[in-house]
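Researcher: Here's a chain I'd like modeled. Treat it as a single chain, no partners, no ligands.
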Amino acid sequence: MTKDHYGRVRVKTLEPMRIACYRAASATPEMDSIGCMREWLAKQKLGATSGARTFGFDADVTPEQQKRGMRGYEVWVSVPESVRSSGGVTVKDFAGGLYAVMKINDPFKNPFEVIPAGWNRLVGWVKTSDKYGFGKHQCLEEHVEGEGGTYLDIHLPVVKKKMRRGFQAAKSIPRQAAVDMLIRDARRDDTANISELSVLIRKKSYQEMEGSFYPREAFEGELQLYSPEVLGKYIGSPDKFAKVAEDGGRIVGLAIGKLDRDMGVADLGWIGVAPENRHRGTARSLIDAVCSDAKKAGCHKLIAYTMTRLDSACAMYERCGFVREAMMKRHWIKIDFVMYSRWLDQSQAVS
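Model: Modeled as a single isolated chain. Structure tokens:
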């Protein structure tokens, strides 16, 4: 094993893509999963798809399988949007993400030494980086056919570190965003853009946080709620609201919901912020605008629901002045939800 095995580290973004996935558990899971995937692709007449990319990663096995000497490996292949799951192969959307990437030449000559050593090098690079820290999205090994044979591009998820100029500089980001960002009512000509943004946000959330517990069929059905036709019903309606956040002429966030003027309660049905605009005060600005309009409409309270497992969503609501008011065990589709409330007149708030 020499330095020639390994290329330099570069940081790149993997764009969202539709992928076909197959997982194998055996003594040779890499070969088995790739072999089954190739057979499936041939049946789908996708064997010669131009530009298709192949990724893989180690997968968990049961204790019983481990005792029998079995390992797990999952292979992904990028496929066209029209492809659907079949024959034991699952097709889903991958949200993409930022990665530190390193090439491993001749990886299969001594794979159980060369590949782990490559991962150790890449982990070490991130540990000593001033610009990047470890991300939480999926680690990947991309199988690439080159002139000299197959090589691996190993992908380690990373995030950009915040500028370390003390806490004062970090806290100034939301205030700066509030200066540059426009919060306004959604217009009819916004429906296509807010639909596209909503679907992107939901797919990314499902891929990164919800895939292990939220039923796939329920998720795919939910995506219909973000169609231009459905979202358009929230625009200009006296008993609904639709707010967007605009940054540099581009819509980067939205909040929609219902107003029950008779009962005095506003329901925040959906709030989403583009991934690149998170942690800049966008959600807070949208919620503050909704609260202002709801209060003018005679409402005394804004409510919102989220799944208890979504720690980031729960933290966002609490940062924006909401309090936990009700825990709903095994609620919608038998998943635990929590109801948050924000009082619009703090003098009437109930502790």
